[in-house]
Amino acid sequence: MSKVQYILVTGASSGIGSFISKCLSQNYNVIIHGRNTDKINQVISECNNPDKQLAFVTDLQQFEEIEAVLGKFIIEKDIEVIGFVHCAGFMNMLPAKMMSVAAIQKTFSTNLFSAAMIVKVLLQRKVNAGALKNVVFISSNISNFGAKAFSLYSASKAGIDGLMRSLAVELAPDVRVNSVLPGAIHTPMTSAIFQDEEKAKSMLSTYPLGEGFPEDISNMVEFLLSDKSKWITGQQFTVDGGRTIDISG
Fold it and tell me: Is 153 a catalytic residue?
């Protein structure tokens, strides 16, 4: 009997990750990852066929433990993971002179190191039986540009895109790997930016198509996971309402 197949979505207990999980549940079984069991269960309750969705609770900052924890989870559940969407992210606006080892570790562990370790686990035949077919990293449009106080976040997202490109070459033709680069999307992580009305208005004036919402990112993720993108790998897909193409200001 064939095993039940799943899409793993990290950072799925809130923000873009939760929206993506709920959308994917219309067509896939989803492993919903987060650190808070109550929040994960709330997302699951809002999914299509909630009884078919799985909760995976672990702290990605402890990325050294991911290989053992995720491997055990997949084996015990007796499932296959065919797709991986890395939505987990940590952003802290921090001037360069205030950088610390702790801040660097927290940012890179969540945004980059954990993603690399999860891919490693999903490629292990003894764990996932060669089932992985598709990886989508949620990066950021800042990975290709610069901004004050975003050095660590920008560097971690540039790292995830570098990881994406090399994995796309190494894992072809069996696994496709791409990145989605959102602009400023309304999520809990970006709430501090939008709470300042004057700052938000100034920022959004640089977006030709106006503000973005989680569904704008989810639509691209669903496309990349589908057979409609079967000849696409190693690419950055910027979904930012035209922000990074507008040099008129």
Answer: yes
